[in-house]
TrEMBL record:
It comes from Pusillibacter faecalis. The gene is cmk. Pfam families: Cytidylate_kin. GO terms for cellular component: cytosol. GO terms for molecular function: ATP binding; dCMP kinase activity. Belongs to the cytidylate kinase family. Type 1 subfamily. Keywords: ATP-binding, Cytoplasm, Kinase, Nucleotide-binding, Plasmid, Transferase. The keyword Iron does not apply. This is Cytidylate kinase. CDD domains: CMPK.
Length: 226
């Protein structure tokens, strides 16, 4: 029996993870947060004090790493690094830039590509990231490019950081998001871009419930045609 693959791409802070997780629970699909996978590698490089832009140094770390995902009964994705749960630590603000930098290296993308595709072969998945519809799952039944204005994304991220107990000033959060956008869209390998057959969903003027309803509508329309 073939699986259904839903690819959700978009810039940092667009709400991909929150929306994808909620909809996966509603549909009974496996949620795969690929950003968390790259954050796990970024955290490792950060914890070791290495330069994330040094491709040689980053590549040298890969053979000794074991990156795994686990899903509890609550459906939440936990990230394991060499057997240690690092789910909370990879969300530190400083890890974001490390994740973006390490994800630009071809060796890292190759290292994680099969892991992501294997999950989609064995489960109905909702997978979110930067290059899911263009590189990881180019034949996905549903492709959505989820976006919002940088200012809206910065405001949402600021509230998220406050909830986690790691507040940052709005100006800094906005600057970080703008830099992340530039880095992700200008990297040489698998840059952030909209797949030609993706549906664009701009949530700038939508609240969470409205965004969720709009995304569910797209998914149901596309899966009905496949």
């Amino acid at each position: 029996m073939s699986t259904i693959r839903i690819a959700i791409d978009g810039p940092s802070g667009a709400g991909k993870s929150t929306l994808a997780r909620s909809i996966a629970e509603k549909l009974g699909y496996l949620y795969v947060d690929t950003g968390a996978i790259y954050r796990t590698l970024g955290y490792h490089i950060y914890a070791k004090g290495l330069n994330p832009k040094d491709g040689t140094a980053v590549s040298a770390e890969l053979p000794g790493l074991r990156v795994e995902m686990s899903h509890g009964r609550d459906g939440l994705q936990r990230m394991l690094l060499n057997g240690q749960d690092v789910t909370e630590r990879i969300r530190l603000p400083e890890v974001s830039m490390y994740a973006s930098a390490v994800s630009a290296h071809p060796s890292v993308r190759t290292y994680l590509l099969e892991m992501q595709r294997a999950l989609a072969r064995t489960h109905n998945v909702i997978m979110d990231g930067r290059d899911i519809g263009t590189v990881v799952l180019p034949d996905a039944e549903v492709k959505v490019f989820l976006t919002a204005s940088p200012e809206t994304r910065a405001h949402r991220r600021m509230l998220e950081l406050e909830d986690r107990g790691t507040p940052e000033p709005y100006e800094k959060v906005l600057a970080d998001i703008q830099k992340r956008d530039w880095d992700d869209s200008h990297r040489a390998v698998a840059p952030l871009r909209q797949a030609e057959d993706a549906v664009v969903l701009d949530t700038t003027a939508l609240n969470f419930r409205e965004s969720e309803e709009a995304l569910l509508r797209i998914i149901r329309e596309r899966t009905a045609k496949s």
